[in-house]
Amino acid sequence: MSHLLFLIPIALGLGALGLAAFFWSLKNGQYDDLDGAAQRVLDDEQGPDASNGNS
Amino acid sequence: MTCCGAQSGTDVALAGHQSTSEKLAEDELRSTSRDLDGSLKLTSFVVPGMHCVACISSIERSLSALPQVEKARANLSTRRVSITWNPDKGPGLDFIRTLDGLGFESTLFTAGADVGMAVAADGRELLLSLAVAGFAMANIMLLSVSVWSGAEAETARLFHLLSGLIAVPAVAFAGRPFFRSALRALLARRLNMDVPISLAVLLALGMGIFESLNGGQEAYFDACVMLLFFLLIGRYLDNLMRERARSSVQSLARLTSNGGALIRQDGSLDFIARSDIEIGMKLRVLPGERFPVDGRIVDGTSDVDRSLVTGESECQLAKPGAVLEAGVLNLTGPVDIQATSDADGSFLAEIIRMMEAAENGRGHYVRLAERMARIYAPAVHLLALITFVGWMIISSGDWRSSLYAGIAVLIITCPCALGLAVPVVHVIGANRLFRAGILMRDGSGFERLSEIDTVVFDKTGTLTLGTPRLMNRPDIDPAEAPLLAAMAARSSHPAAKALAKEYAGHPSPALKDLKEVPGYGMESMFEGKRIRLGRPHWVAELTSEQPDESEIATLAFAAEDGVKTDFVLSDSLRGGAAEAIAGLLNKRLAVEVMSGDRKNSVEAVADELSVQRFQHDMTPKEKIRAVNELRLNGAKTLMVGDGLNDAPALAAAHVSMAPASASEVGRLASDFVFTRDTLLSVPFAHAIACRTSRLIRQNFGLAIAYNCLAVPLAMAGYVTPLIAAIAMSASSIVVVANSMRLNWYAAGRLESNSVEASRVHKDATILQRAGRRGDLQAVSP
Q1: β B613-615/B590-594 pair status
Q2: What ipTM does this complex have?
Q3: What's the pLDDT tens digit per position in B732-781?
Q4: Where are the alpha helices (DSSP H) in B597-742?
Q5: Of A8, A12, A26, the CB nearest to B128
Q6: Catalytic residue status for B299
Q7: What global pTM score does this model have?
């Protein structure tokens, strides 16, 4: 019984972490241009600063 | 052919009005840009030709290299480039030039940005709700599975409480779209599908809290979040499709300008927004631009193209005194007009009003899903109530187990599968169409398209391409090609454009004094001799030949004292037109042609396509009337058209389609827009629509069959949360799997073959038509 006390919070916490990550990525505009993101990864010359700007 | 007007012609200094039109374009660009903080502006362009990473990076790099650009960002999904720039440091027209230099066509993006934001915000909220519901569902399901697999009473109680703690905020957050819609419906004293959904979710949640606080054995927490999760998937897909359809239609090139060039007292030109134009203002319309409002020509002569406005395929000569409608394209010379209407009173505005009135008539169409909801929602409430009352009587007043059975009925009948039945099929169908170059603007378009029994085509620009082509190239001396190419390239007249396209790629010789004589053609000096390309009568003056009155040529070329060369130009049929119409006739649909063009050209096209019924010389009002008459006679009409004059009829018809080359208003009025040149898009869309509506009916059948099995169980009180969870997910999966079958539907043959087929057919048509030139429908300059 006692192991439930920390296992359940861990399980829920991990789930909540995933949810928070999804919220963040959505707010950050990462879903605005899915086709573009798929193509941009192929660009060798693009600097890191250009790859996470939001339009 | 008319041969009057100022013979000397207006000298078109080609370089001259380049600069004025540039200044106007710059003004327009700035006025449509959004102001950001500081002195920065945000301007968006639609770049339809952007396809891969090389396009993105070359666009972004070249634009960022301009001194005035702060940041340029390309979005491949929407095919848009947004540029943050400082207007003090340089002109915005550089963007268009840069994109042009890279080989990308671009148009300024403005239309309906606010509406787009609202739909996108809706989509975002749905996605967030979906994420929360998914998170809650997964965690509650984990806890529930351990309860179902036989947890001890103490653990089960703890797990129920935990589930409740997750479920309450999750439902409060993820259920908002449903609660809002249900509340709106109730306030309007209606029932929609969201009312039983909200009721079931809230009752189940309340019952679950009560049970877990009082140590009960069963709670429906998992069922109520799962319900929300499945339904949100359906909602989100629905929204996604609408959003995509809307943004892709917006991304098509804009045809009408936002304003015109106002002539000031001192003769200078200024950009003026269309809404600011007043009656009596003097405006200048440059070649290649459209009339912003209705106006009377006060100065200048030009050829005008009214094909989008009236459906007439022949260009006309416009002289001072002529009154022209908004939307008419000016072709050859600059003209000064006096506005005879403001933006609200123009022909364009009148068309839009007629369109709105016609759309109101169609507004009575109720989507299949809504019709279902009208029967389903009351039935569900009634069943739940009967169950509750029945159990009260049988168990002699045990309200707890009676309520329990009632809630079980509400939950089990909850339209998970029904909520997915329509959107999943629509999204897959829209994807199929999208791959074939057809955009859907309205989800109910599929339902309406599958019901049609009559197809009405417009002629100019729909059955035909609306642009002339050269038909007698073999008769023409190839030595003349470079001269022809050089002269034709400088005019925006459709006949000249056709020649320029035909002879593109030839080195252009040096021409002196090249000028365009509006209404007649192009004139120049070459090796000391005067040369002309234009109307046969006018060209014949150089060669002292007797013009032949019965000649079929529509364009001629000659050098001084030389021999006249005649060109035959004709508006050609859109690719696949014959197969498309044969295909529709095969499906026992009635086909009709309604055109604003003259009788003989309409008749020629109708004959060639073996369409028996055709009407000609129709005004927009007559088109609406004809479409309404068809409706009163019980016909369900598909209208395919492109012009401004078709727009009201497009809106009045049961369902409508337009080619991507259509006027903006026409595109907005139609449910489907096809971007490929082939007319085979029409039967293809119809085939897919019939298929989707069959699948939707099957899905409804499956969902109803499921209910027939599950509802008696629920009413008998045999449904536990475990059974509810299995039944709900199983029915949803069955429906989604059934919808997926649309992807394998054999109409896919058309998608890959249609382009090829249309090309072959096009060639055949040209040959066949060139063979019997005598009855060609002529396009005169």
Answers
A1: parallel
A2: 0.80
A3: 888 889 988 888 776 544 444 444 444 434 433 333 333 333 333 333 33
A4: 599-608, 620-632, 647-652, 664-669, 681-716, 721-740
A5: A26
A6: no
A7: 0.73
